[in-house]
Amino acid sequence: MSSFLTSVEIRNVSKKFRLYKEKPSSLKARLISSRARAEDFWALRDVSFDIEPGQSVGLIGPNGSGKTTLLKMIAGILRPTAGSVVTRGRIAALLELGAGFHPELTGRENVYLNAAFLGLSRKETDAVYDDIVDFAELPDFMDNQVKFYSSGMLVRLGFAVAVHVDPAILLVDEVLAVGDEAFQRKCLDRVRLFQRDGRTIIFVTHAVDLVRQICDRAVMLHHGVIHSEGAPDHVVRDFRLVMLQHDLDYATEEGTKEVEIVSAELVGGDGASASVIHPGEELTIVVDLRSSAPVEDPVVSFALHDQDNRFVFGSNTSEHGVDLHGLEGKRRVRFHLRSLPFVSGKYWVTLGVHSRDSSRVYHVQEQRYMFEVGVGEATTGQVFIPVDVDVEEL
Amino acid sequence: MAAADSNVTVRSSEPPKLHWRSRLRDLRRFREVLLNIVRKELKVKYTSSVFGAVWSMINPLVFLGVFTLVFTVVLHNKVPHFPVYLLSGLLAWNLYSTSTTSAVRSVIDNANLVKKVYFPREVLPLASIGSALVDFALQSTVLILFMVAFRYPIHPENLVLLPIAIVALLLFTCAMSLLVAAINVHYRDTQHLLALLLLVWFWFTPVVYPSGYVQQAASKHLIFGVNLWHIYLLNPLADIMYGFQRALYGTVSAVVGGTPKQILIDESVAWIFVLLVGVSIGSIGFLYLTWRLFFRMSGDFAEEL
Description:
The complex is a heterodimer of chains A (394) and B (305). Chain A is of the alpha/beta class. In chain A, 24% of the residues lie in helices and 36% in strands. In chain A, the strands form four sheets. Chain A has a six-stranded mixed β-sheet with strand order 5-6-7-3-8-9, with helices on both faces. In chain A, strands 10, 12, 14, 15, 17 and 18 form a six-stranded mixed β-sheet that branches. In chain A, helix 3 packs across helix 5. The longest helix of chain A has 16 residues. Chain A is globular. Chain B has 305 residues and is mainly α. Helix content of chain B is 68%, strand content 6%. Chain B is built from 14 helices and five strands.
């Protein structure tokens, strides 16, 4: 394959679906139902981008943004309503859990069926069969019907087949989330091997950290149009911002919840809830905690990241000699940031509660809260330093 | 298309035009899929039943029993070696009706594949024909069994009709299967309509009753100045039956109860051969049209389901 040719070209692609209140699938229903009962829904509108051979692209966006529709068009399952999709080379698509598997057939038969869909002959499948079984770690189950497989086993087998058919383009839609951690790691290793081989990979995922980790480019779709595109860090940022505006429950959370962050608020100098702050102003991070049983020596911490996901500042209660020993019931912790030395831009706040040695994480809300520093005085550079200017006659 | 290395695939908003040569190459590349789906259908059909493939052979035997009872015992309609006569046409009819009945649902029954995997959709109705062919082969052993049991004479000069009859049958079956499979995705009425159509069609085709009777009776009538027999010849399946019956049964007329009776149509082997060549050519034209329709519609199957 010549290197100057693109791997996937998406040109002004639009896709319209007809949404029926109740889909008329018989002649009578079609005749009596007026056209008004069907609504047009544009899943994609005028989307264009190219993917170079060997690129790994993460396709992200909120639910219903058109990611899967676009992936299905690249895979050849759907036809664009307008525009065109050009692909070069064999495509292996993992579109859904157990896609292309038949429940009544055994694992072995399904490997052959699946490999056939991906364009392999019986002989070619024979040659890689043992590797597939090895990779899927299912040697004892190949003669069992697939309907008795767990979802994890299905993903393993599906992924194992897809990576052994020598595709030029690999499409993966969210399926990796199902497997256990060890298998996920194995898949990622395989994906990195694919990247070294110069194969093209397109991921559709909600796991934005995965995109940051392995993709060299990301495209974010929102309401069927490209919202942003470019370096994964930058696009993931934009994605977080959109998700925060739409869905407060979005941000990633983890922890044992022995101590829970019930709510948090960013308060400006005037005591009101702040979303826009001017350089040099003060900001208070108010964190309400709850714990049902006494917790020994918890530490509350915060971290601030800028829009390029750089860590800019962080601190915690123990650094300031605040002791929360034996925390039980409700507490309110306030971090007073007396003067924000930030230039204009968006900043994300991560909050966490953990044990003093950080061995136990009680609750972390990663970059769930956001504030914006507005343009106050004309400033450029990395930090804001309050400056007084005076002129003296000499 | 998608599965070939260093091969460029373009998908655009233009409804695809059928270039039958390149499409045939695509289908050839996906023949493993076809074989695997046929294998799958046979396995699903037979594995969880006790008698398995034996059911395929029981079906013509039951038909035979019922029709023998009705026609020879109740109606005193004496066709010599009735089982050989009936089976020679019934097997061909079964291939046609089993194929279309299963093809009409082939796309919607495999919705989970169509929505999630790319492959030429023609594979699905073709797989229906494929598994019907396996039934056809199994059922043929029943016919062979009867021929051996009766020590039934085979007329080698009639056997030339068998290949052309099979070709005509397969071409027509492919055309109909693609047609009903495609339309049924939009209009689920098609499957019910097909069941009725096949019932009527079966009785308008000389499978159970002797085709010679039809020729004798129809030749006497004129409809708008056209001989009714000539209109009857427009039924491609009837024409195909003449081929199978002459090739395998071969007894054009017989003396039944002292009077000579015409059982098969009174035409030469060459005449039937030419008729079947005509049916084959017509079926190729029909197949091209239905394939084009199927191909145009197949791009949108995934969202119609």
